[in-house]
Amino acid sequence: MIVSDSSFFDFGTLGKLGYVPGWPGEEIYPPQPMVGQTRSLLEKYAAQGGSFEEVVIADTGHTPYVEKPEEFMAAFEKY
Q: What is the pTM of this model?
């Protein structure tokens, strides 16, 4: 999917897998761990007194509110 630690929309991931000719290597153009980076930021926020809840809706792409509106709204309406 689009937001992932190994997204096929990320040239760093595609390069590492051998799909990008001339990819300069992981030291120069590494895959971007989008989920890991986001989770790390939220955990730092929580450590400083904030709070968050991570909700993962399985088998959903970038638009869970369109693809699975009932599940999305159930999570969204909690707040």
A: 0.69
Nearest to 36 by CA among 24, 21, 54: 54
Condensed to tens digits (0 to 9), the pLDDT of residues 56-71 reads 899 988 889 999 999 9
- Eight-state DSSP code of residue 72: H
| CB distance 38 to 10 below 8 Å | no
Residue 3 lies in a domain: no
Taking phi over 0 as left and psi of -120 to 50 as alpha, with beta for the rest, 11 belongs to alpha
Expressed as residue numbers, the domain containing 43 is: 11-76
C-alpha closest to that of 28 among 12, 43, 40: 12
